[in-house]
Amino acid sequence: MANKRIKDISTASTSFASDDFVITDSATSGTRKMTKDNLISQVSAGVSGDYLEESNNLSDVASKDTAKLNLEIGNIGTGANDIPLNGFLNSGAWLDFDAFYETGTWTPTITFGGGSTGITYSLQKGTYTRIGDTVHLAGIVQVAGLGSATGTARVSGLPYTTADSSVSFQTVPVLAFDATGLTSALIGLFEDNQPDIVLYQTGASGGSAASHSNFTTSTSIRFSATYQIA
Q: With CB atoms counted within 10 Å of each terminal CB, which end of the chain scores lower, N or C?
């Protein structure tokens, strides 16, 4: 971009020096000239040249330092020119770690035939880690009172509902204890789209289901499992 119009350039003489550049001025049907010093020397010196902008391309900004900052990648932080870490990595536009990884606790319960009336506990403890759509969990439940519910025994209260897939065929080793020690090794099976583990006395879903009759007022069960969530 020129700072001066062609008509402001010196009128050409009949003879030219070796460093003169001839310019045609159509407005006056004449010629004009600029010297190498006009075109190059003043521009290269960083001065707002007679006929060209400065060679650093920053002459039209209020502050060169500000222009340079605008070209830099900001720091991760909370300063005026920084990118905040909270929201940058945990936003939908980037990596949402909250949706990808989670750890926590849950409260396992026992149900019989889907009921839990009168069942009491002396211990209920569960932990879990979720990575993507997979949950790893562990739990312990100690029964203090059986209540009036009857039927198939289940561990209920899983932190996430199971997926609708072949996860129902994954088995969960379950150890049952009472006051005298280990009484049985049960097998748990996940159900599709349910927050439960069904307990069996054998490893096949067609085997003998565990029920209220397999529990006493001192029974405790311990287990760990991995399953896919819905």
A: N
H or E segment and range at residue 64: helix 64-71
Q: Which helix (H) or strand (E) holds 175?
A: strand 171-178
What are the tens digits of pLDDT across the range 137-154? 999 999 999 999 999 999
How many CB atoms are located within 10 Å of the residue 86 CB?
8
CA–CA distance, 54 with 175 (Å, rounded to integer): 82
How is residue 122 written in tokens? 């002396």
Neighbours of 191 (CB within 10 A): 16
24-50 residue pLDDT tens = 666 666 666 666 666 554 444 444 444
Sheet-wide strand order for 134-145:
101-106, 120-131, 134-145, 220-228, 171-178, 181-190, 196-200, 153-156, 109-112
What per-residue string of b and e applies to 165-180 under the rule 16 or more CB within 10 Å gives b?
Answer: eebbebebebebbbee
Q: Determine the pLDDT at residue 204.
A: 47
- Report pTM: 0.57
User: How far apart (Å, rounded) are the C-alpha atoms in residues 121 and 72?
Assistant: 61
Domains, the chain, with CATH or none: 6-63 (no CATH), 107-228 (2.60.90)
The DSSP code sequence of 114-131 is TB-TT-EEEEEEEEEEEE
